[in-house]
Automatic annotation (TrEMBL):
Pathway recorded for this protein: Carbohydrate degradation; glycolysis; D-glyceraldehyde 3-phosphate and glycerone phosphate from D-glucose: step 3/4
Cofactor(s) this protein cannot do without: Mg(2+)
GO MF terms held by the record: 6-phosphofructokinase activity; AMP binding; ATP binding; fructose-6-phosphate binding; identical protein binding; metal ion binding; monosaccharide binding
Xref: InterPro entries: ATP_PFK (IPR022953), Phosphofructokinase_dom (IPR000023), PKF_sf (IPR035966)
Organism whose genome encodes this protein: Lanius ludovicianus (Loggerhead shrike)
Catalytic activity line of the entry: beta-D-fructose 6-phosphate + ATP = beta-D-fructose 1,6-bisphosphate + ADP + H(+)
Tree of life domain: Eukaryota
Protein name: PFKAL protein
GO cellular component, one term: membrane
Gene from which this protein is expressed: Pfkl_1
Entry's Gene Ontology BP terms: canonical glycolysis; fructose 1,6-bisphosphate metabolic process; fructose 6-phosphate metabolic process
Amino acid sequence: QGYEGLVEGGDNIKQANWLSVSNIIQLGGTVIGSARCKAFTTRAGRLRAARNLVEHGITNLCVIGGDGSLTGADIFRSEWAGLLEELVRDGQISEEVARENCRLNIVGLVGSIDNDFCGTDMTIGTDSALHRIMEVIDAITTTAQSHQRTFVLEVMGRHCGYLALVSGLASGADWLFIPESPPEDGWEDLMCERLGE
């Protein structure tokens, strides 16, 4: 469950093995879970997360996420030594355990359907989101044609129009709105004229 799992510990932290990861590669979304974690934004929450990691002997993290997840990882990394010192001072771990776990290694992978990160061809999640959008468009297109109707589709992407643009190009959409290029005045008349054609 992301940082929530680190903070809560217990059954949230378990070893992945051949059986637990078999037959998940084709699944969309995240099989391991994801959650927003308000507690991890506090030092007390990160202290609990550090305690749980040390308890399991984990000193390597692979963080897949967006701005919040990767910013949290950077803060966690920068505080790691201080968190261990605090755990020793409070008697939660021994100095020997702190020495054995003195270094936290983090690999950050951008997981964002927006595909809005410089330096990568495609962020994790974009491809499966595009495939899902195209499946829906293919299904709706036959209905639209048989009933001679216009359909309006909204796709995810918050402030980034990548998914809308690429799926619009791939499906031959007649009209497209993306945040990077707001419509100009009079767009309503132009759109009606286009649809009328």
